Amino acid sequence: MSDPSTSRPARGRPPRLDQARTVETALDLLNGSGLDALTMRRLADAMGVQAGALYRYFRTKEDLLTAMAERMMAGIRAPAGGADWSDRLSGLARALRQALLAHRDGARVFAGTHSTGPGTLGFAESCTGVLREAGFSDADAARAALAVVRLTIGHTLEEQAALRTEDGSPADPEVLRAAVSSGGYPHLTAALPTLTEADQAPHFEFGLALLVAGLETLRQPRR
Amino acid sequence: MSDPSTSRPARGRPPRLDQARTVETALDLLNGSGLDALTMRRLADAMGVQAGALYRYFRTKEDLLTAMAERMMAGIRAPAGGADWSDRLSGLARALRQALLAHRDGARVFAGTHSTGPGTLGFAESCTGVLREAGFSDADAARAALAVVRLTIGHTLEEQAALRTEDGSPADPEVLRAAVSSGGYPHLTAALPTLTEADQAPHFEFGLALLVAGLETLRQPRR
DNA sequence: ACCTGAACACCGTTCAAGT
DNA sequence: ACCTGAACACCGTTCAAGT
């Protein structure tokens, strides 16, 4: 079955490269060193090959990054479907955040690409499906799904950016604290303890809860 | 007053470069060719100088990008303050989107940097101020402001990404349409007409309205 | 003090040539 | 068919040297 001599013609040597393994190696490299250090040359090195060889499998680096984003989205499993629509929608948003957090700079990779693969489309299908089945119109379901996804991307982008300077160096919170307390920002000063919290999950949950509460008022106009 | 011979010592030739003019030129270049084409060498060229000279005014390219983001934020004028808190908050969010839209790839520049300058902090101060004066707790004001800013960034990032492929080439909507209609995505198919609308403002307004409605339920728990 | 010139250590991408 | 080697046209950044 998996014997290369019986499965397909396969004349010549078996290839040392393929799309799936290359994407996997690229995601490992991403986790190890971050997006800025992910170059075609370094990826080729990790695969034991010259940089030019990658271009037989990916037309450009952007195509590779798109394949990486699609691979991240394909890993998402929608949580159990028994709950009501607001729990299911929240679960999808949390799953998206987790999928992006699973790889260093995951949100940056996702935000910089536009996959139309089954993972990405499947996730969008789930979001709009939950909303349409809850009774929202096609247009409202589309726009609500966009809002949830875009809030999640915006949030996770900043969450991972804060992680970048986490260890050593003048950490981001310190710089912000200094800038705020030096000037005349009374409201920001009051908000600062919350803004500089290490755990970003409550911030995400708060924004998500606002969107869901807003959607609920849309379903029950005045009650 | 502005005579260089009386204002300051200024021995030697007057400098051909300064921070403000460099940032302005960089923003012009951004509008003309986009972020990917904005290199230190091309910027130096536009200023009639060698690339190395820029490093006397900006420690790194990232510092330049941060200054550009700060310049964009400094241009924001908060809309008139007579309205109620929800209108003022929406006005701030709209002003942020407009400021990012004012420059090609503006959202990408902003999302990739972390200015702590007066423009950026002043905007954050306005957002938290509106919310705290409306009676929200410090923590809720902080998190609500984060949600509004992050939704706006997430939205504008995608809005400008869609603009990138606007003219010529296989435009993004077409690719999406083809991918969706080929597979088994019934909900996405229903949502497609809305998702592929050219005008993105309604999408933004919808998400913003959801956040504001969510905040209103927080103020009046059950009524 | 301010800028040039030139270099260093890289990039993404292409493509003839080898096997 | 698949990969190498080498090149092309760039990058960001540094720094002695000039003026």
Q: What's the helix count of chain A?
A: 11
Query: From the 3D coordinates, which CATH architecture of the largest domain in chain A would you assign?
Result: Orthogonal Bundle
Largest β sheet strand count, sense and barrel closure of chain A: none
Determine the strand fraction of chain A and express it as a percent band. under 5%
Most extensive interface: pair and counts? Answer: A-B, 61 and 61 residues
Mean pLDDT of chain A: 92
The best one-word shape of chain A is flat
CATH superfamily (homologous) name of the largest domain in chain A: Tetracycline Repressor, domain 2
Helix content of chain A: 55-70%
CATH class annotation of the largest domain in chain A:
Mainly Alpha
Order of helices and strands of chain A: HHHHHHHHHHH
Looking at the structure, the CATH topology of the largest domain in chain A is Tetracycline Repressor, domain 2
Distance between the termini of chain A: 63 Å
Uncertain residue segments of chain A: 1-8
Structurally, the number of domains of chain A stands at 2
Helix and strand content put the structural class of chain A at: mainly alpha
- Count of beta strands of chain A: 0
The gyration radius over C-alpha positions of chain A equals 22 Å
Oligomer: homodimer
